Amino acid sequence: MTSNPQSDLPVEWVSDKIDLDELFKDAKPIGDGSDWAIPGFFESDREHQEFLAWYRAERQKELA
């Protein structure tokens, strides 16, 4: 005996997708990101610059 797996679905299917305009209607721009910064995360300015150089190189590889 076989059963129809579709028979257990609700008669009216409702999408769980949200309209993007509705989702972001109250969103504010991020700005420069300084609000999210963690003071003292990098031990030195040089370490921070090395990280930024690495990050930019990785992004360029992904975009190529």
Describe this structure as you would to a colleague.
The protein is mainly alpha-helical. It has a domain at 40-64. The chain contains two helices and no strands.
Count of DSSP strands: 0
Spatial gap, N to C terminus: 55 Å
State the helical fraction: 25-40%
Unreliable stretches, pLDDT < 50, 5 or more residues? none
Number of helices: 2
Please give the radius of gyration in angstroms: 24 Å
Specify the structural class: mainly alpha
Question: What structural keywords apply?
Answer:
64 residues; mainly alpha; 36% helix; 0% strand; elongated
Topology:
Layout: H1 20-23, H2 45-63
Give a short synopsis of this structure.
The chain is mainly alpha-helical and 64 residues long. The protein is built from two helices and no strands. The radius of gyration is 24 Å and the shape is elongated.
